[in-house]
Specification:
By secondary structure, the protein is an alpha/beta fold. The protein is built from seven helices and eleven strands. The protein starts with a helix and ends with a strand. Keywords: Methyltransferase, Transferase. InterPro entries: Methyltransf_25 (IPR041698), SAM-dependent_MTases_sf (IPR029063). GO terms for molecular function: methyltransferase activity.
Length: 251
């Protein structure tokens, strides 16, 4: 728990929050909120790893009651600058274990965050926790990237995922444990005299779509839909990510 709090600290929460830009842009959030709102129907939603409210705040504004679970104290503090506890109740804790009061028609876990759980056992327990929160027939939505192992050159254990002015993202793979460590390298005029760089790292456990479906079945879910993105485009062998919708069929 302490390591995770250090990882998702005040600096990380501040860097994560980019209102109106990047993943906070209306182009990204508009389709996301529309899909989640339709899936919630007349019921309430619970967000696992609610973060700073990137999705929850606009979803509430769209008329869907949202509660959340969040491990990071820093993320919750930043969320509270946008919405009070009466508007968006949040339970601080592990999304594989912590429970929110109430019954929901929708649970969702976006932006690859299930991969923050670093063992298969924890990821299965996350599905089971989602099932505990849902009414019969409720849905659990997961947004997740597809492991890009085909892009690994022979004899190399890493790939450059992003290369842009002032920022590099390099992913290194441990294929035995299905672990990826993302190395975030920030550099440029904002750091000292422009010759320095700042490096931060985030660990993940990647999950194949078929493995994710098996986790869902263990927890009582069935796959209902899978798209390449929130625009409901077709998921193919070339897709780099997916949005998967699971329906609870039994506990």
């Amino acid at each position: 728990m302490t390591d995770q709090q250090e990882l998702w600290n005040e600096e990380t929460a501040q860097q994560y929050d980019t209102p109106g830009e990047g993943m906070f842009s209306s182009d990204v959030l508009g389709p996301t909120v529309q899909v989640l709102s339709e899936l919630a129907g007349d019921g309430a939603a619970v967000e696992f790893a609610i973060g700073t409210g990137r999705v929850a705040v606009p979803l509430v504004e769209a008329g869907v009651p949202v509660s959340g679970i969040e491990l990071s104290h820093a993320m919750i503090r930043r969320l509270r600058l946008k919405a009070d506890a009466a508007t968006i109740p949040v339970v601080q804790g592990d999304m594989a274990e912590a429970q929110v009061q109430g019954e929901f028609t929708l649970a969702y876990l976006v932006f690859n965050t299930i991969a923050n759980l670093l063992t298969q056992e924890e990821q299965v327990r996350c599905f089971q926790n989602a099932a505990r929160h849902l009414a019969p027939g409720g849905r659990f939505v997961i947004e997740l990237w597809v492991p890009q192992l085909r892009s690994l050159p022979p004899g190399h254990g890493g790939t450059v995922e992003v290369s842009q002015p002032g920022y590099l993202l390099v992913d290194s793979y441990d294929v035995l444990r299905q672990h990826v460590t993302s190395h975030h390298v920030r550099f440029g005029p904002g750091l000292s005299d422009g010759r320095d760089a700042r490096i931060s790292r985030t660990p993940h456990r990647y999950i194949w779509p078929s493995e994710l479906d098996l986790m869902a079945r263990i927890a009582g879910f069935q796959l209902e839909s899978r798209w390449a993105d929130w625009d409901r485009s077709d998921f193919t062998a070339e897709s780099r990510s997916h949005v998967s919708v699971y329906r609870l069929v039994h506990r």
